[in-house]
């Protein structure tokens, strides 16, 4: 028996384990959708896939509780597919291998998928439990949240029947989230001229890896190193000191994850190989000093590779490299009224430069619409100076907090009753689907909650398993105590 099946609450962990057996990276959700439909059929509850590829489940009220408000429980089915450099895991075919590390549940060399698999597992546990007392319950399990919140964005109006929305995608137990940041994808593209590489030159692959990476909303304030930004510094130094030229660049792989790895291929004069290695050693020491309280496994090294036939011409290389160097990354501003919470940030997530085409993908976040516009214009101003075409996509607004929420007050009351202490009410910098769902169902009374998960979107993702049991207790209690219509 898998270790996590022995954890409490059994129903949540069993369903989570079953979910880890099903491949579900963003963009590849056919298997998990069928898995959820099969589960619902066996549990005896209504289920269907809507036009936005979301799975909706419905369970009628317990006899005598038909007058209670309907609760819509919401989570997303997809997970971020990140793995360690030496992992052979295939997210489209292979199950996630979990293990218990002291008080944490982790995955072996991959993301765990507790974001948001624990939320999905909790919905499944509610749907199959015949002993629970509750009003009508609706489960909304959305598609492709991690790549652009497509399931929420395309959610049909008039489909949901709930009065209350409990989003199960928050990641600190004891916190009730009542507001979150909006976001937008910023994509910059341009072509460049290639030139033939002199056959007398040498080629090296420069690798930066071993960084923590992580969630570009929840962990952006920690000042973690961005592999793409470090690589810009490395290449600038190698161009200046070693006459390097750039042939290709591949850094990052998820728009909402801080990139933990970047690789470039450069060409240099044959007699500069030793000097290049010296420069890299010096820069590695600099980075280790700068990030000594944040990162602990920075790797920076060069390997000889086959000489490429083409490289960027010097003019285009200079323009592109300077644009990347100058591109804003990290926290721009904290919320003035709540100075402990990030208001506006950006993450230089993905860089692809090869075969005459350069592409940068940045994810900008803000809980202020005007500041979101400002950070986008800041990025656009920098990138257009280097002749990039800049496009915005997938924009969604922030979720404005409602401190007078009826369901929030009930949750606070029940939390104090069950656990003897006050919960924390907060606003998150992470983007939650609540804002999008509210734009289509403005009557919803909304709160987000969940057990403690750390370092989502990275191979360090882990779930504090002792927080899942009280999360489940509170969820059952609020279903039982849901207000009347």
From TrEMBL:
It holds the Pfam family Peptidase_M20. GO terms for molecular function: metal ion binding; metallodipeptidase activity. Its EC number is 3.4.13.18. Residues 207-292 form the Peptidase M20 dimerisation domain. Its cofactor is Zn(2+); Co(2+). It catalyses: Hydrolysis of dipeptides, preferentially hydrophobic dipeptides including prolyl amino acids. This is Cytosol non-specific dipeptidase. It comes from Hoylesella saccharolytica F0055. Belongs to the peptidase M20C family. Keywords: Cobalt, Hydrolase, Metal-binding, Metalloprotease, Protease, Zinc. GO terms for biological process: proteolysis. InterPro entries: Bact_exopeptidase_dim_dom, Peptidase_M20, Peptidase_M20_dimer, Peptidase_M20C. GO terms for cellular component: cytosol.
